[in-house]
Specification:
Helix 5 crosses helix 6, helix 8 crosses helix 9 and helix 10 packs across helix 11. The radius of gyration is 22 Å and the shape is globular. It starts with a helix and ends with a strand. 29% of the residues lie in helices and 26% in strands. The chain has 413 residues and is of the alpha/beta class. The longest helix has 17 residues. The protein has a 9-stranded mixed β-sheet with strand order 4-3-5-6-7-8-9-14-13. Strands 10-11-12-15 form a 4-stranded antiparallel β-sheet, with no helix packed on it. The chain has a 4-stranded mixed β-sheet with strand order 20-19-18-21. The chain is built from 11 helices and 21 strands. It has 2 domains: 222 residues, ANL, N-terminal domain (Rossmann fold, 3-Layer(aba) Sandwich), CATH 3.40.50; 98 residues, ANL, C-terminal domain (GMP Synthetase, Chain A, domain 3), CATH 3.30.300. Strand 8 and strand 9 form a beta hairpin.
């Protein structure tokens, strides 16, 4: 999908504005002799930006406006290296709320709904983004934040929340608790808007069934406003994204070459009108594709497929490259095994070899030993690695209020 004339002029304006500043990217573009963008070809020759850039520019090197125009700071939820600090102007904050309100509207949320917000507040973009979008729409906001499941359920019942916003991991925890306590008939939820992490089809079906709601995937990242730049619709055929605010291209993560619509690769995002910290060709590491053609729902905004994983999620054992998505596809084939699992990888020094331990949950109706053998055999035949398998009862593995860490590589520690 190429830049249209409006988008091209917006990118050109961003470049021209940046090179007049002493920001990190202003200096970088001047050094490279970049002063304008006059064509698609010129755009695709622009250098990529990355999270490493933002860490190198810490704390506010990417700020492209005077201090007096910055009204808010957010930071990424990442746990490695220096944090990424993103400054927002008043217009950035409002633009984000407008996009988020569109997301709610796309999910069929109205002013009559009561939006129960469980993602975290503070430097993270989630909670405040979900709140601002709902307020912009005119819905009732219940700003719970994460944790205190007893209070969450009490408020959900007493205030008759109709829309749940959460990470899929916390939605799973709430669904399990509602099921365990027999509260399904007491809750009034109709829709769930979930983001922040990729989730398996098994987890999706479980949450949908236990809560009796329609599910919508919301997309975004702190560096590009936050959640709310795209969402799935009732057609459940990809996520519409707001191309009047962001331009999205898909690249081959190895070569950096732009791929045609329909081909899977890494999502690269350009902010078209962002003021505080505009980003040009930002590599997200998220893997997806642009879905060609129009959506059955009739909306004209382009679509991204559901996020398949991250190009930096890959881990290697015995020389074999693996992704969490492969593990989830494999576990989906096993009867009685729901969505929760963890992988621990360590190096056995005396034997001088890597050890991979996969822990999965299984329902009590299945034979754990036989299930473990089936999973081990599937790993061997489909991935080419034979891990040690531990099968535990459902509910044994820890549940998270944020993102769930699936792979723990002790070799790096």
């Amino acid at each position: 999908m190429k830049l249209n004339d409006t988008q091209l002029s917006q990118v050109d304006a961003q470049i021209k504005r940046l090179v007049k500043t002493d920001s990190y990217y202003g200096k970088k573009y001047r050094e490279l002799g970049i002063t304008e963008v006059a064509s698609q070809e010129a755009f695709e020759e622009l250098p990529f930006s990355s999270k490493d850039d933002l860490r190198n520019a810490y704390p506010l090197g990417i700020q492209a406006v005077p201090d007096e125009e910055v009204v808010r700071i957010h930071s990424s939820s990442g746990t490695t290296g220096k944090p990424v600090i993103i400054p927002y102007t008043a217009k950035d904050v409002d633009d984000w709320a407008i996009m988020f309100a569109r997301c709610y509207e796309t999910a069929g949320v109205t002013k009559k709904d009561r939006v129960h917000i469980t993602p975290g507040y503070g430097l993270w973009t989630a909670g405040i983004g979900f709140q601002a979008g709902a307020e912009k729409l005119g819905a009732m906001v219940i700003p719970m934040g994460p944790g205190n499941t007893d209070k969450q359920l009490q408020m959900m019942i007493d205030l008759e929340s109709t829309v749940l916003t959460a990470t899929s991991s916390y939605a799973l925890l709430l669904a399990e608790e509602i099921d365990k306590r027999g509260l399904k008939d007491k809750i009034h939820l109709k829709k769930g808007v979930f983001g922040s992490e990729r989730w398996s089809e098994k987890k999706r079906k479980y949450i949908k069934e236990k809560l009796g709601i329609e599910l919508y995937d919301i997309y975004g990242l702190t560096e590009i406003y936050g959640p709310g730049i795209g969402i799935s619709c009732d057609a459940q055929n990809g996520m519409h994204y707001w191309d009047d605010y962001v331009y999205i291209e898909i690249i081959d993560p190895k070569t950096g070459k732009t791929l045609p619509d329909g081909e899977e690769g890494e999502i690269v995002i350009t902010t078209l009108v962002k003021e505080g910290a505009p980003l040009i060709r930002f590599r997200t590491h998220d893997i997806s594709r642009i879905i060609p053609g129009e959506c059955p729902c009739g909306r004209k905004h382009p679509r991204l497929d559901i996020i398949k994983g991250r190009s930096d999620d890959m881990f290697k054992v015995h020389g074999v490259n693996m992704f969490p998505s492969q593990v989830e596809e494999l576990l989906a084939l096993v009867d009685g095994v729901p969505s929760e699992y963890t992988i621990n990888i360590a190096h056995d020094e005396p034997a001088n070899k890597d050890i991979m331990l996969v822990t999965v949950e299984a329902e009590g109706r299945v034979d754990f030993e036989q299930t473990g053998r089936q999973i081990r055999d599937l790993f061997k035949s489909r991935i080419g690695v034979t891990p040690k398998i531990t099968v535990v009862p459902v509910g044994t593995l820890p549940r998270s209020e944020k993102k769930t860490q699936r792979v723990i590589d002790h070799r790096e520690q």
